[in-house]
Amino acid sequence: MASTEAQKRAVKKAQAKCDAIMLRPPKEEGAAIRAAAFAAGQSTQQYVLQAARERMEREAGE
Question: How many structural domains compose the chain?
Answer without folding.
Answer: 1
